[in-house]
């Protein structure tokens, strides 16, 4: 881990269901790991449990079990994210993968407080902590955005997505926080700070796709990572200001 007391915590918040938040968090985590960082990705999207699709093997304990059984350490629920080859850093994920009854218990106020504690633990052990957060409508989502250093709102590049962003801004204001940047996926959105083009590698087992050839998708993921870290990543444009320079001033929190 880098020489910092705690890691930066970024909440990737879906402006609407199915926005592509999980995939965005996974890709950004992979980009940071390729830059030599140690990254943890924690799942707050209990309803969809999409982060579980990005790991192989048995998921036990999952994140919800850690929330309802506070005797377990975070390390027992962390699984390695397959980055498809040797990279200088690493990414570990803690997905939700649980039956309905435990999901209900994991959404209680007490579990949300436990979630904040797990995020703090991850922050002390990793360079970066990324949170996969659904639209703000449950205790664990509120806990995630309240402890995050930065919030990236993820939305599809559509009229529906633009409307969802405005609702997300309002909901974040309701809980006393605000977005750091807006990311549109699968195309350009006029109000987005960073737009991620569509990729043919849509399946979970094709992720991360940002570590392959230098294409527009990989470049956009790099811009998100640079904006959130405030640092230029390796592999940036040597002839210009780099990834960070291309998104300078986006992070406002």
UniProtKB/TrEMBL annotation:
Report the domain of life of the source organism.
Answer: Archaea
Under Pfam families, the record lists: AAA_31 (PF13614)
Instruction: Please give the InterPro entries that the UniProt record associates with this protein.
Output: AAA_dom (IPR025669), DNA_Partitioning_ATPase (IPR050678), P-loop_NTPase (IPR027417)
Residue ranges of domain AAA in the record:
10-174
Protein name, per record: AAA family ATPase
- Natural source organism: Halobellus rarus
